[in-house]
Structure formats: structure tokens, C-alpha cells
Amino acid sequence: MGTISAGRQRPGAPGAPRNRAAWRNWAGNVTAAPARVVAPASVGEVQEAVRRAAEDGLRVKAVGTGHSFTAAAATDGVLLRPQGLAGILGTDRAAGTVTVAAGTALKDLNRALAAEGLSLANMGDIMEQTVSGATGTGTHGTGRDSASIAAQIRGLELVTADGRVLACSEKENPDVFAAARIGLGALGIVTAITFAVEPLFFLTAREEPMRFDRVTAEFEEHFAENEHFEFYWFPHTGNCNTKRNNRSQGPAAPPGPVSAWIEDELLSNGVFQAVNSLGRAVPAAIPGIARVASRALSARTYTDIPYKVFTSPRRVRFVEMEYALPRERAVEALRELKAVVDRSRLRISFPVEVRTAPADDITLSTASGRDTAYIAVHMYRGTPYQAYFTAAERIFTAYGGRPHWGKVHTRDARYLAEAYPRFGEFTALRDRLDPDRLFGNDYLRRVLGD
Predict the structure, then answer these.
(1) I want to staple 58 with a disulfide (CB 3.0 to 4.6 A). Which of 77, 109, 136, 361 is the partner?
(2) More confident call, 317 vs 227
(3) For the stretch 374-406, what's the b/e string if a residue is b when 16 or more beta carbons lie within 10 angstroms of its beta carbon?
């Protein structure tokens, strides 16, 4: 990964427009037909793409790897692919920061940081996304004290609707910085991000099966005792799998081949793909499959560098809804969800995931101003999900839930203005930076209003 150099757009170059073509997200539930696709290779080319879009009366949206389940990046105007903006731009070891181009994939950033003896403090469980896409929608992992990827941002660079490049940090344009770390693509095109980093460390992970009643009864205890705690409940069973990640002295002791196969294939990929396909064809088989899969789990402990513990490959495609709840209400909401599933005719082949995050100060962060627990529900791609998600969303909203910006939900600006105390602060900033809605689309119109 190298430093990005500026260049002029020329026919056939990365920044040149391509022919109109359909775009589809990773899950396949969102499509778009942009008027043109642009792949800029410099900040100057981003500025030019924004100016041209405005001149042509087209809206412009940046799209990363399409891991959002919402239409946050969809457009019928200019689709900007930032992958040509990639690489580490600078490292400041004294300040404990690294600046990276916005189109850099998280997997490439993690590997490059590790090679330099550095690491992010926390991350989600997938690292295919670009850094700007992941942070812009509020991607997070789980943590008692360490928050989302966006909360680790110390500065960013934004191309605004008038084509300017705006540098933002706590000291420079702090009002924009407070909002643009999770900006939903509504404030401009992010071209570079500066993250806080620290010396590379080891994490020891302990995974342990646990009954639903026990893990919910002991949730606060597990949360308090571990730096990173999460668990998965298997619908149609009373079984869960828990995961506790804590810093250790090392050395690295990665999972053995058998436990790696169980986690990476049985529960996540190859075999899981097969059983989900069976469940989609024969829904009545799902409860039995869930009981077998959940009983296949056994306790294991392993140690490795952070990104190898936090993240896992995810080849089985699905659709997901996730809500952020006040942490003290999460167990109650989860028990209610279990009761709904147990008495319904729903057939759910994917585990329900529960994670946590501390309160942060980002304007539209799902953890803004409150300690948070996340509950995520999933359905295998191609399986009808509306009935399940509708039932789950009804529960989550009753507890004051905030939907993940990049995952399926039906909330609108009226609901979100009540859920976020600083919602008006964000929309006022948007009115100032993008009064003509150059960066708008139908999704933003729904969640932010006009």
C-alpha cells in the first residue's frame, strides 16, 4: 500500500466515466442504475467528479464494497467508486495515528498496520469494507470501553458540494467532524481518514457454549468482566455461543484445524451455506438443523493479533437488521424476541447476535450519548425476511432502538428525530454543506427528511 499521487483524468484512466451499468449490493437486495460510474484515482479527480455532477444536474454517491443492506449508496446519478483512493498516506507514531485513503479496504489496512507493528483498538467481524464505507454507516464490533471504528477517527478530509476539500478534526471544523465521522454520505465525499492506532497487541479469545437463560441472566456480569463480550442465540433452541476477547501477553496460539473448521466452515461458510440452502427449500427442517448446529459447539481458547481474532470470513450471503438499544434494556428485548419466535411459525436459520458499545460523542452514532447493546437478526439471502424483521423491529422500537444506518429498517426522519437528541444538529449542518442535495438519494430523503 503506497501513497496516492494526484493525477489528471484522461480517457481510459481510473477517473474516466464508464458506461451506464447496473449496480448491486453484496446481499443482492439493493440495485441501482447510475447515469455514469467514475473511479477517481486522486482527490482532484473526486473534486472534478463532484463539479461535473453538479453542472449536469446529477446527484453523486460514493459506494464502497456494497456491504450495506440499505440503499444508502444507491443513485441514478453519478456512482463514485473510491477504490482507486487506496493506501496509507502517513503514520505519526508520536501522535499514535495513521492517515489512510478513503477507498482502502479494512483488510488491507489491518494487514499493513500489523506489518508496521500497529493496530486499531477495535473493529467489526467483517473486514471487506472500505474504511469510508464502514465508518460512514457506523460499523462496529463489541466492546466494554472501546467503541465503533468511527469513534477511532481523529481527523478526516471531505470534498463538499461546492468542490472544496474540507479538513476536519476536533480542532479544525469541529462541528463537521462531530457529524461526518458517521456522515451517511450526506455531507460530502470522504477522501482520507486519520485513525488512532496503538502498538500491536494480542487478544485471547474464549468461546463457550451457554444456555440462553444463563447468558441472559449473567449478561451484565460478562459485560463488566471482559473487554469484548458477545454472544449468539440459535433460534428454535435454548442454546447460545459466547465469545470473550481480552488482551494478553501472547504468544500467538491460533485455533487448531478442527475448531477452525467448525467456526469457519460449519458455522460461517461452506457447510453453513449448504444447511441454509436446505432450510430455504425445506423450512420445516430448520429447527432440527439449529439444534444439531448449536450442539456441535464446544469451548475453545486461542490467542492472536487483533484483526485475526475480531474478524472472520463471511461467504454465506444474508440480509440483516440490527438495532442499538439502551444496554440495560437489551436482555428484556431479546427475551421478548425469543418468545415471539417460539410461539410463531417463523423458521430462522441464522443465529441472533448480541454486542455492546460504550457511549460516544458522534452526532448520529447509534451509541451517541448512551451505553448501547446491539441485537442483530439475519435471514439467508433469498429467504423471505419481512415477517421476521417486522416482528423484531416492533420490539426494538418499543425499547427506543436506533437502527443501524447500513442495515434493513423501516424508520423515517420523524422517528429518528426522536431517537437522536442531536438529529437537528446534523440536518442543519447538511443544509449548510449541501443545500441542493447533491449527495442526496431516496434513502437519505427517508431517514433525514428534505
Answers:
(1) 77
(2) 227
(3) bbbbbbbbebebeebbebbbebbbebebbbbbb
- Which residue type does 154 have? R
The confidence score (pLDDT) of residue 266 equals 60
Using H for helix, E for strand and C for coil, what is the string for 223-266? Answer: HHHCCEEEEEECCCCCEEEEEEEEEECCCCECCCHHHHHHHHHH
pLDDT at position 292 over 80: no
> Nearest Cα to 303, choosing from 200, 203, 199?
203
- pLDDT tens readout for residues 48-90: 999 999 999 999 999 999 999 999 999 999 999 999 999 999 9
Length of the chain: 450
Separation CA 277–CA 283 (nearest Å): 10
Pairing of strands 372-380, 300-304: unpaired
The reported pTM is: 0.92
Is the confidence at residue 437, as pLDDT, over 50? yes
- The closest of 315, 321, 313 to 379, measured between CA atoms, is 321
State the cell numbers at 267: 458455522
How are beta strands 228-233 and 198-199 bridged, if at all?
unpaired
- Cell triple for 170: 476536533
* Cα separation, 426 vs 103, whole angstroms: 24
Cβ proximity of 67 and 128 under 8 Å: yes
Name the strands in the sheet holding 78-80, side by side, starting at the edge strand that comes first in the sequence: 36-38, 78-80, 60-62
